[in-house]
Amino acid sequence: MKIALYCPNKPLTHPNPSGDLIIARGLHNALNRFGHQCEEVLQFRSRWFWKSPEGWCRAAAALTRGFLNAYRLAPRVWLTYHSYYKSPDVVGPWVSRALGIPYVLFQPMYGTRRRKDPRTRGGFYLNRIALKQACHSFVNNLDDLEAMRRIVPGGNITYLPPGIFPKQFARDENLGFEMRRALHIGSDVPVIMTAARFRADVKYESLVYLLHALAKLRLRRPRFRLLVAGDGPMESRLKELARELLPGQALFVGKVPREKMFEYYSASDVFAFPGIGESLGMVFLEAQACRLPVVALDTGGVPQVVRSGETGRLVPRDDGEAMAAALDDLLGDREARLTMGRNGERFIQEERNLERNTLRLSAALEAIAR
């Protein structure tokens, strides 16, 4: 079946990695693996477009371009990934109606508080139009599910848990050993890994929080290494803080291609990232698939992707003491780490497996098209 895909927040070719982009690419790849012809028909990034006359001109041009591309493809379904107040879909509702095909949303978001703020009111109403016109919505976040039920009839919403392809993050002990050797880390040195985009928002806030927590851990357990994967505009400030708080212990390895991440996970003993402001956090799923216990804050959407006490430890937000204590416990208990690692791998295989979850989406889209 031909499917027209549109990602108004970030096109599939966007250079900066993020959880949303990972989900979008995984969705696109999985649908094609199931035999569909899923094509991205438009790369117009609608983020804040309505704030300028030039943005409205770009949106009008995108509407024309989207119609022509979809007309040539002749899809049976239009699928928009992640329409929300910052990046509302102002193309899909009209093109799908013109072509006489179902308009479907995946991971839409709705928050009435955006209506009250003049800075976000325009995006709120534009997004609301898209949500109202969708014949069906699929959500992968339980918080979004509750919000969507306020505007869309319950029968037109389906919850599909977030997932990854587990085989892409299978642990490889031999590669992990080679990676440690390449990084000059002894086999007996505990390794804590973290990964994020170094941008000036909650990602940076989380990394700063982690560095302060590890400074407290250093007082109890001075011998460990921190492996940091990622890059971004805040890199120099993070490195400076790491030199101050963890002299000689933090190793920044730069931006790692996603297909290579499993090598770094395999070289590590624990994955730690606070997850401040995270709606879900795809790195948590990747780490668990690679049999790494996770230590994070018990906040936001993190409990939806990490099972505290089973696949990791979720701790309250304080001055970093609770996170330091949890890491100290895990680094001192190899059996607990191995048990949580096996639990995490099984959790991803059975409940956060993108192959299985997208199979349900595939079947639903075919039923909608019929």
TrEMBL record:
InterPro entries in the cross-refs: Glyco_trans_1, Glycosyltransferase_grp1
GO molecular function: glycosyltransferase activity
Domain Glycosyl transferase family: 179-346
Source domain of life: Bacteria
Organism for this UniProt entry: Syntrophobacter fumaroxidans (strain DSM 10017 / MPOB)
SUPFAM superfamilies: UDP-Glycosyltransferase/glycogen phosphorylase
Pfam family, one: Glycos_transf_1
Name of the protein in question: Glycosyl transferase, group 1
Keyword line: Transferase
